[in-house]
Specification:
Helices cover 25% and strands 38% of the residues. The protein is an alpha+beta fold and 114 residues long. It has one domain: Alpha-Beta Plaits (2-Layer Sandwich), CATH 3.30.70. Helix 1 runs antiparallel to helix 2.
Length: 114
């Protein structure tokens, strides 16, 4: 099993959600997060004073998939939906997952995510 985390622009939320639905990825957790990468934010005038905004709002998708095939399909769908070609498009991470348990039924492994 593999966990995929994608941190992307807020405005790409609906596009990514649709892309995941299209490939039939259903188990998704979404969080609003803030962070900064290479772009280091931007400057904004607040009441006449220039302020550096370094922590930018982003959306974090967390998805568990059962195989490398699903990992590749899921990452491709997210990348295509999140892409603008500009700094700040985000990052996608994937990790090997040791264990998953469905709390209600105590199912373990892929049975817990299907």
């Amino acid at each position: 099993m593999i966990k995929i985390e994608a941190i992307v622009r807020e405005e790409k939320f609906e596009d990514i959600k649709e892309a995941l639905t299209k490939i039939e990825v259903n188990g998704v957790t979404v969080s609003q997060v803030v962070g900064c990468g290479k772009q280091k934010g931007y400057k904004e005038l607040v009441r006449g004073t220039e302020v550096s905004i370094t922590m930018l709002p982003k959306i974090k998708f967390e998805i568990i998939v059962s195989s490398e095939e699903w990992e590749k399909k899921t990452i491709k769908a997210i990348q295509e939906a999140a892409y603008t070609g500009k700094p700040g498009d985000g990052k996608i991470f994937s990790y090997d997952l040791r264990s998953v348990m469905r709390v209600r039924t105590k199912e373990i492994g892929t049975a817990a995510i299907n």
